[in-house]
Specification:
Layout: E1 4-11, E2 24-28, E3 31-36, E4 39-44, E5 47-51
């Protein structure tokens, strides 16, 4: 998938992004990505992908 580099360093069990997670959001196609420590996390199955 274009723009996706690797699986994020945290799992959904460790931290779930959502309305009150404290991270900024960014609309991306038909979903929302989360800005996390200088990179974007995109939900993918049971984990997040780090995106460029």
């Amino acid at each position: 998938m274009a723009g996706h580099e690797k699986q994020a360093e945290h799992t959904k069990a460790e931290h779930t992004h959502g309305d009150n997670c404290g991270h900024d959001t960014m609309e991306h196609d038909d979903h929302v990505d989360y800005l996390h420590d200088g990179h974007r996390h995109s939900e993918h199955e049971d984990h997040y992908d780090e995106c460029q």
